[in-house]
C-alpha cells in the first residue's frame, strides 16, 4: 500500500500560534477547575466576621503593594524598548539626576510603608485571636484536643464531645481553648478565620463565629506524621434550635467517654479508626457523659479517674492552672500559650473549679 496516496496528514501539526493559544486555554481551564469546591476551603471565601476582615485586609495589602510593583512591571519593558540599540535610539550622555524621579522612587514607597504600618498595627490588635468577639449572646465554650490524627471537640457546658465533626450555632461567638495530646499541630477553619497552633501541655485560645448556617472544612496545617493529610473535620454551623437538638441527641445516643473510648482516641489513627474500634460506622463519633475536667486533665498529662462520677474531677498531674478568660472567675492575666511547669508531686484539682488557670512561670 502506497501511503503517499493518502494525502496530507492533518491534526498533528498546525500553526505554532494556534497551538500556543490552545495550550494557554487548556492551562487556564485546569487552573479555574482547580478552584471549584463547595466546601469553603479558603479565607478568600469568608463565612464569618474574622475571615471577612482577613479577606479585606489581604486585598488591601495586595493593592498597596501594587502601587510599588506595577510601575516596575510597566516601565521596565517600556524603558528597555525606548532606549534599545538602533539607529534612532535616544542618547543623553549628560543626563545625571532628576528631582522628580528621585522623589517618586523614594517618596511613594515611603508613603506606602507608612500607611501599611499604621493599618497593620491596628489590624494586629483588632484581629487578635485571643480577643473575645462582641455580640449579644454568650460565647459557646469549646475545648479542642489534637490527637494523631483526629480532633476531639469537648462541649464542657453541655457535657458532650465529638470526634471528626464540630457542630456550632450560627451567628454566635465561639470561644475555643486548644491543646494537643501529641505533637505540635495547627487548628484551622479557613472559611471562619485565624489558624492557631496547639501544643502539648499548653493552652492556646481562639475566637471565631460563623455568619450563617453551612458546612465548612477544618484541618491540621502542621505536618505530624503519615496520617497528616487525613486530619480533617467538618464544621456544621446550624440554627440555635438545631444545635439544641444536636446536644440532646448526643446526650441520649452518644457513647460514654470512658477508659475504652479514650484508649481508642489515644491510638494513632483517624476518626474512622476510632469509630471502628468502638463498633461504630462512619467517621464521626459522639460522646455523652463527658467530665468537665477532661480537658484540664489532658493538658496536665494526667491519668483520668474513670471510675469516679462525671461531676467529680479526675486526679490531675502538675499543680498548674490554665485559664485566662474573663468568663472564668479568678483570672488575673490573659493566657498566651504559657507552658505548665511540671512538679514532682501530683495534686488534686479543687472541687469547685474544674478549669485550670494559666499563670506565668
TrEMBL record:
SUPFAM superfamilies: Cupredoxins, Cytochrome c oxidase subunit II-like, transmembrane region. Residues 309-334 are annotated as: Disordered. Keywords: Cell membrane, Electron transport, Membrane, Transmembrane, Transmembrane helix, Transport. Residues 321-330 have a biased composition (Polar residues). The keyword Transmembrane applies. GO terms for molecular function: copper ion binding; cytochrome-c oxidase activity. Its main location: membrane. It is a multi-pass membrane protein. GO terms for biological process: ATP synthesis coupled electron transport. The keyword Electron transport applies. It comes from the Bacteria. Residues 137-249 form the Cytochrome oxidase subunit II copper A binding domain. The chain crosses the membrane at residues 21-43, 58-83, 104-121. One of its GO terms (cellular component) is plasma membrane. It is found in: Cell membrane. InterPro entries: CcO_II (IPR045187), CcO_II-like_C (IPR002429), Cupredoxin (IPR008972), CuRO_UO_II (IPR034227), Cyt_c_oxidase_su2_TM_sf (IPR036257). CDD domains: CuRO_UO_II (cd04212). Belongs to the cytochrome c oxidase subunit 2 family. This is Cytochrome o ubiquinol oxidase subunit 2. It comes from Kushneria sinocarnis.
Amino acid at each position: 500500500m502506497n501511503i503517499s496516496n493518502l494525502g496530507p496528514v492533518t491534526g498533528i501539526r498546525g500553526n505554532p500560534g494556534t497551538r500556543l493559544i490552545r495550550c494557554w486555554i487548556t492551562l487556564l481551564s485546569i487552573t479555574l477547575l482547580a478552584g471549584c469546591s463547595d466546601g469553603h476551603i479558603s479565607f478568600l471565601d469568608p463565612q464569618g466576621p474574622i475571615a471577612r476582615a482577613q479577606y479585606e485586609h489581604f486585598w488591601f495589602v495586595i493593592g498597596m503593594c501594587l502601587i510599588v510593583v506595577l510601575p516596575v512591571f510597566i516601565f521596565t519593558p517600556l524603558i528597555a524598548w525606548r532606549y534599545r540599540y538602533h539607529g534612532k535610539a535616544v542618547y543623553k550622555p549628560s543626563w545625571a539626576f532628576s528631582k522628580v524621579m528621585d522623589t517618586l522612587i523614594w517618596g511613594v514607597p515611603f508613603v506606602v510603608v507608612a500607611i501599611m504600618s499604621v493599618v497593620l498595627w491596628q489590624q494586629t490588635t483588632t484581629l487578635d485571636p485571643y480577643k473575645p468577639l462582641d455580640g449579644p449572646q454568650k460565647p459557646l465554650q469549646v475545648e479542642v484536643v489534637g490527637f494523631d490524627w483526629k480532633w476531639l471537640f469537648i462541649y464542657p457546658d453541655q457535657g458532650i464531645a465529638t470526634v471528626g465533626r464540630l457542630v456550632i450555632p450560627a451567628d454566635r461567638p465561639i470561644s475555643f481553648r486548644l491543646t494537643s495530646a501529641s505533637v505540635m499541630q495547627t487548628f484551622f477553619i479557613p472559611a471562619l478565620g485565624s489558624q492557631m497552633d496547639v501544643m502539648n501541655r499548653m493552652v492556646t485560645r481562639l475566637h471565631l463565629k460563623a455568619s450563617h448556617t453551612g458546612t465548612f472544612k477544618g484541618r491540621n496545617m502542621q505536618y505530624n506524621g503519615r496520617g497528616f493529610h487525613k486530619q480533617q473535620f467538618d464544621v456544621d454551623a446550624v440554627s440555635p434550635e438545631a444545635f439544641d437538638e444536636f446536644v440532646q441527641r448526643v446526650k441520649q445516643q452518644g457513647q460514654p467517654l470512658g477508659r475504652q473510648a479514650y484508649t481508642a482516641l489515644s491510638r494513632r489513627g483517624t476518626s474512622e479508626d476510632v469509630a471502628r474500634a468502638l463498633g461504630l460506622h462512619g467517621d464521626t463519633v459522639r460522646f455523652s457523659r463527658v467530665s468537665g475536667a477532661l480537658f484540664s486533665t489532658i493538658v496536665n498529662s494526667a491519668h483520668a479517674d474513670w471510675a469516679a462520677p462525671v461531676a467529680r474531677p479526675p486526679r490531675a498531674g502538675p499543680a498548674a492552672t490554665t485559664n485566662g478568660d474573663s468568663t472564668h472567675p479568678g483570672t488575673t492575666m490573659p493566657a498566651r500559650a504559657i507552658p505548665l511547669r511540671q512538679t514532682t508531686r501530683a495534686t488534686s484539682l479543687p472541687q469547685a473549679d474544674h478549669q485550670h488557670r494559666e499563670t506565668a512561670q
